Amino acid sequence: MRKPRFIPYLLAASIATCALSSYISNKGSSTILQDGGRWVAPPSADKIKNPYPVEPLTLTQGEELFVMYCSPCHGENGYGDGAAGGAMGIKPANFHAPVVQKQSDGALFWKLAEGRGNMPPFKESLSEEQRWQLVAYLRKLGEVPDKSATAAAPAGNAVAKPTTKPTTAPSVPKETKTAATKSPEPKQNIGPAAPPASTANTPAAEANKEGPEIKTPTSLRPDIKVSHVMEIGPSAIRLFRHPVTGEFWYNTFEGDVYKISNIDKKDARYQKVFSATDHGITRLQGAVFYKNSLFLCGNTSVNNGKGTTGRLVRYDFGNAGKPTLTEVFNTVEYGTNATTFDHGWNALEVSPDGKYIYVNTGARTDHGEVQDNRGAYPNARDNALTAKIYRFPIDAKNLLLPDDVQKLKADGYLFAEGVRNVFDMAFDPSGNLFGVSNSPDYDAPEDMFWLRQGRHYGFPWVFGGIDNPQQYPGWNPSPETDPFISKSAHAWIVKYFHDDPTFPKPPAGVKFTPGVQNLGPAANEYRDVASGKVTDGDLTGQAVSTFNAHSSPLALFFDTKKVLSDEFKGDGFVMRYTGGGRAGTNDLLRKEGRDLLHLKLSYDPATDNYFVKTYRLVENFNAPVDAVLVGNEVYIMEYAGRSNAHIWKITLPSGVKTGGQNTSLKQ
C-alpha cells in the first residue's frame, strides 16, 4: 500500500458528507443544538461584543469559513439540508430560522467557541477574528427569510396513510435543459454552447427566491436529455421500483415508505404506505423489491439512544389484503456513537438468480478508532456487525445475528469484510457484484470494489489504497506536517486522529483486496503521497482507487439488459453525491461532482481486478442520492433535508450509437 515520504505514516481519506458537525438540532428543535435538552448560552454570553468592524471583506472571509466548516451539514445556503447531517438522519439547524437569528451575536460566538455534542469547540481551530467573521456571515444569511418550512410541507396531506388522498405533484414542463457541446481540452468541463431556449418554468426558476437554491441538472452531451419528473417530500434516500406493477417507491431516513403513482404524468403523486411504527426501523437506509416482496433494512435505537440493533424485514404482498411482515433478522445490541460516522445497516441487493439478498453494514467509526459513546460502551471500535457485507437466503426469517465473526462465518452469512460503508451495490450483466464505498475523514480516494465471497478489503487498516497510520504506535498527526489532514476535518478537530497504541493488528495471513483502479479521464484527481499536492491522474498516468476524495459515490447501477447504445451497452453508472459548486472553487479534489458518471470497466487477469474509465454525462444536480434505470431512462432522486426534493429523468442513447460526444476527453 502507498505510504507518504513526508511523514512517518499516512492516514486515509475524508468523506465530505460526514466531515463536519456544527450547530445540529433535532427535528422540531427550538434551539441551535439540542442533545436531550435545550442548549442555552449563559447570560454572560450576551454581553460578548464583536471587537472587529463588519466590512465587505469580513463577509467574504466568513463565507469561506462557512463553506469549509458548516456547509457539509447545513447546506450551501444554510437551510439545514447539508449532506453530513442528512445522511445520518440528523436535522442540522436552519440558519435562516428566527429561532437562530433571535439569539445575540455573543451567544452564537460562545456556542461556536465551546461546542457541544457532535459540534467541536471551534476555539481550538478558529481564531477569535475568524469566529466573529463566521457570526457575521450567519447574520447575513438571516437577512433572507426562512421559506424552507413552507416549501417542505406537502399540500393535501401527501404524507397521510393510504386511506387519505395523496398529493398531486406540481406541474412542471418536462423538458428543462439540454446542452450542445464543443470540443474541450482534456481538463475542460463541457457546457452548453448556448443557454436553453427557456428556463422560465424550470424548478429552479419557479422556486421562491427567498427559499433554498434549486439547481437544474445540465446534460454535457446533445444526445442525452434531462427532464423534470416530479417533486417529493424531504429526507428521501432510496428510490426503487416494484417489478410486478412497475410503480416507483421511495423511503425516508426516518422510516416512511411511499408509493408513487403516475410518475411520468402531470398528476404524479406520492402516498405513504408504511411508517417506522409499522416495520420497527427508525433509521431506514435500505429498500429493495424482489418479485412481490419488499425488503426494508436499517437500525433501531436501544438503551436510551446509546445503543442500536440492525434489522431487516420483508413485506409479502398477496393478491389481496394487507401485506404480511416477516422479520428476516435482528442483531444483538451494540453501541452506536455520538458522531456522524455511525453508518448503520443500509444497502440491499438481490442476486440475479433470486436466491440471496446482500446487505451492507457500514462502520461505526471514522477510521477504526475507539467510539464508546461517552463511556456507554467502553473501548468499542468496529465489530462483527459493522463494516461488512452479509448474504442471506431470500426466504430467511427470524434470525438473530450475534457479535461473533466466527459464528457468522460458520453460518454462511458473512460474505465479505473490510468495507467502510458500501452504501450502494449492483450486479453487472455477467453477475459480478460491485459496491461503492466512502473513505474516512482524510484526503484519500473513495473505493469501488469488486465484491467477492471471503475477501477482505482492508478497512480499518487500508482505505482508498493507502495505509491507515493510526495503526502504528507513535503516530503524531498534524495538519502542519501532513497535507492529507485538513484543519477543518471533524476527525482532526475532535482528536479522533491520535496516537493509538492499542489499535488492533491486521488479521494474520489475510491479503487485502484493492479497489477498482480508475484510469480517468473523470474523477481521478488525487493527493500525491510524495509531494502532498493535488494532481490529476491524466497528467501522471497514476491509477486511482477509485474516485476522487470526498465525492461520496452513490446510486450504482448497470445496463444489465443491454438496451443502451453500443457506447454504453452493459456498462455501469454512478452518481457523485458531493463536490462542485462553491466547495470546489478552491479545492481541486472537490472541483467536480454532483454528477452522473459513465463507468467503462475492463478485467485485468494480471491483477485479478478491474480497471475503469470514467466519463461525466450530466452535472449540476443538487444532491443525487439514488437512481433506477428503466430501459434507456434513468430516474434520479435527489436528497433534501428540509425542503421538497426532486426526481429527474435522464434519457440515454439506446440501440445503435447515435454519434454522440467523444468521451475520451476530460468531462
Short description:
This is Cytochrome c domain-containing protein. By secondary structure, this protein is α+β, with helices and mostly antiparallel strands.
Topology of this structure?
Blueprint (H helix, E strand, L loop, with lengths): L23 E2 L30 H14 L1 H4 L8 H5 L3 E2 L5 H4 L3 H10 L13 H14 L6 H5 L14 E2 L6 E3 L25 H4 L11 E2 L5 E8 L3 E6 L6 E5 L4 E5 L7 E6 L1 H4 L3 E8 L2 E10 L4 E10 L7 E8 L2 E2 L9 E6 L5 E6 L26 E6 L5 E3 L3 H6 L3 E4 L4 E6 L5 E5 L10 E4 L10 E2 L2 E2 L22 H4 L23 E5 L3 E3 L6 E3 H4 L12 E6 L13 E5 L19 E9 L4 E11 L4 E7 L2 E6 L6 E7 L16
Parallel strand pairs: 14-19, 26-32
Antiparallel strand pairs: 1-2, 3-10, 4-6, 5-32, 6-35, 7-8, 8-9, 9-10, 11-12, 12-13, 13-14, 13-15, 16-17, 17-18, 18-20, 21-22, 22-23, 24-25, 27-28, 29-30, 30-31, 31-32, 33-34, 34-35
Structural overview:
This protein is 12% helix and 28% strand. The strands form nine sheets. Strands 5, 26, 29, 30, 31 and 32 form a six-stranded mixed sheet that branches. Helix 1 packs across helix 6 and helix 5 packs across helix 6. It is globular. Residues 149-173, 196-206 have a biased composition (Low complexity). It comes from Adhaeribacter pallidiroseus. Keywords: Heme, Iron, Metal-binding.
| Uncertain stretches | 3-36, 151-210, 658-667
Question: Total domains, how many?
Answer: 2
Q: Helix share of residues?
A: 10-25%
Name of the CATH architecture of the largest domain: 6 Propeller
The CATH class assignment of the largest domain is: Mainly Beta
> Which percent range describes the beta-strand content?
25-35%
CATH topology of the largest domain: Neuraminidase
Largest beta-sheet characterization = 6 strands, mixed
- What is the CATH homology-level superfamily of the largest domain? TolB, C-terminal domain
Mean pLDDT: 83
Oligomer: single chain
| Shape designation | globular
Radius of gyration: 24 Å
- End-to-end CA span: 29 Å
| Number of separate strands | 35
Keywords: Heme, Iron, Metal-binding
Biased composition (Low complexity): 149-173, 196-206
GO molecular function: electron transfer activity; heme binding; metal ion binding
Region (Disordered): 148-219
